[in-house]
What we know:
Elements: E1 3-6, E2 13-18, H1 24-32, H2 34-37, H3 50-58, E3 61-62, E4 65-72, E5 75-76, E6 78-86, E7 92-100, H4 109-124, E8 129-135, H5 139-147, E9 151-162, E10 165-175, H6 176-180
Parallel strand pairs: 7-8
Antiparallel strand pairs: 1-2, 2-4, 3-4, 4-5, 4-6, 6-7, 8-10, 9-10
Helix pairs in contact: 1-3
Domain N-acetyltransferase: 14-177
Protein name: RimJ/RimL family protein N-acetyltransferase
Keywords: Transferase
Amino acid sequence: MDVQRPAAGGPGAVGLRPARESDVDLLEALTNDPATVGEYQWFGWHDPGYLRRRWRDTGLLSTEGGMLVPTAEERPLGLVSWHRTRTGPHTYCWNIGMVLLPEARGHGLGTEAQRLLVRYLFAHTQFNRVEASTEVGNRAEQRSLEKAGFTREGVLRGFDFRDGEWRDHVLYSVVRADLSS
């Protein structure tokens, strides 16, 4: 299940593929190493074997959510993830996230990875909405989401706790009808 498209403003193509066992150490660094994750993704240390166990048990793909590895010219760029979020008594949407390696940031690769993930989720699930949020101060991610086709919906006050403070987030979404307009 490789999904691939030319990178916006960059050489080669961005693709998404399932995680391989050889990716697990990289994925652990992208979630558990403050130097790798970056300012807006460091939430403190956590169980270092968590992703290895999830990979062994599910391949990081389940009906509740998953992780894929974005690539450029076969080189891993980071991870994209999604999980099911309740929107009503009988309905759900996908909530997505992304962490890129420091060298992959700022080149439009994340924008394309998020665009591919939305298309993948709409092609293979019946959910009507994909949402993402980012800290109010993370202007680069806000631009990336907008370029990927997301609509800014509003500010979620006191939404997330990071580095000793409650942080406001900006909520974005894309619905199926947005892809046809």
